Amino acid sequence: MSSNLVRLAGKRYISILSRVWSGSAGAAKYSEESLRKTLQGKFPQAKNVVVSDISGGCGSMYEIFVETTEFKGLTTVKQHRLITETLKSEIKDMHGLRIHTAIPSE
């Protein structure tokens, strides 16, 4: 605990580190790879499936990009809903999720 205290002008101040708030680097319940495999299983025709942990390594925030012909004819909202339904159980343990979808050009 003493490592989190800083003395300035004779007074003690608590030093808040970002890691304290975001958890430890190994705290992620799901990995980028496990989420990517889940999405590839749901969208086998996907040309691209990219999952990035944007939380600094603690697994609380992910950015997802899925490019597949399976989205053809669907609105963006419906495309995103397919992603969130696929990751429904995983999303419960996340702080946030950014979803990007695309249909490959022919």
Features:
106 residues; alpha+beta; three-stranded mixed β-sheet; 4 helices; 26% strand
Please tell me about this protein's structure.
The protein has 106 residues and is α+β, with helices and mostly antiparallel strands. The protein has a single domain, classed as BolA-like (GMP Synthetase, Chain A, domain 3). It is 29% helix and 26% strand. The longest helix is centred in the middle third of the chain and has 11 residues, at 32-42. The chain is globular. Pfam families: BolA. It comes from Culex pipiens pipiens.
N-to-C CA distance: 59 Å
Total number of distinct structural domains: 1
In DSSP terms (H or I, runs of 4 or more residues), the helix count works out at 4
Order of helices and strands: EEHHEEHHE
**CA gyration radius, whole angstroms:** 19 Å
Let me know the number of strands: 5
Largest beta sheet, briefly? 3 strands, mixed
Strand arrangement within the widest β-sheet reads 3-4-5
Rounded mean pLDDT score: 81
User: Structural class given helices, strands, pairing?
Assistant: alpha+beta
Question: Quick one: overall form?
Answer: globular
The helix fraction, in percent, is 25-40%
- CATH uppermost class: Alpha Beta
Low-confidence stretches: 1-6, 13-26
Work out the strand percent.
25-35%
- Mind telling me the CATH superfamily name? BolA-like
Could you say what the CATH topology is called? GMP Synthetase, Chain A, domain 3
Instruction: Indicate the CATH architecture.
Output: 2-Layer Sandwich
